[in-house]
Amino acid sequence: MSKINMVEAPAGVEGQGFFATSLEKVVGIARSNSLWPLPFATSCCGIEYMATMGAHYDIARFGSERPSFSPRQADLLMVMGTIAKKMAPIVKQVYEQMAEPRWVIAMGACASSGGIFDTYSVLQGIDRIIPVDVYIPGCPPRPEQVLDGLMRVQDLARNESLRRRNSPEYQELLASYNIQ
Asked: Which residues are annotated as a binding site for [4Fe-4S] cluster?
């Protein structure tokens, strides 16, 4: 975890002290502790997510207790369950409507790889249409795994450079998915 160090003020300067850190670290800490998930749940993984939201597991400890059902107010897309190929354009549109920076979790075997449904109508992993930051394995994954995946996204948000989203590599990645 990043630290903000309290440093004594130089001689001749009044006050208790001042903070010595970079803006990038402060923004990263703020982002990581206020992720607003958009749950895109289609099957049993959604039930496990609901259990994670309950008092026993308390996702509020991580600053993610406010699920947003508007892509313009969310920064973490959680895709849970089987995604049919007919739903793929909707998932992609939801992702494109989210403001940067945005992160994606593929929760469960179906969202990650199509699961047991190796058929013509099931998308064999959402990473074919949008970039995925964290994969949560399981069928369905336990709430503890969901919290672990959330903590991994928090680490990404905390340590991400402010300039990474404008880098040529990131723009090339989005272009490979035909996302502007």
From this structure: 44-45, 110, 139
Tokens at 176, concatenated: 């490979």
Record the pTM.
Answer: 0.84
CA 150 – CA 138 distance, rounded (Å): 15
Instruction: Copy the structure tokens of residue 33.
Output: 């502790």
The dihedral sign for the CA sequence 94, 131, 78, 109: positive
Domain that holds residue 113: 36-155+166-176
Q: What is the CATH number of the domain that holds 55?
A: 3.40.50.12280
Q: Would you list which residues are annotated within the binding site?
A: 44-45, 110, 139
The percent of residues above 90 in pLDDT, for the chain, comes to 52
Question: Per-residue pLDDT tens for 75-125?
Answer: 999 999 999 999 999 999 999 999 889 999 999 999 999 988 889 999 999
CA-CA distance, 101 to 45, in Å (whole number)? 25
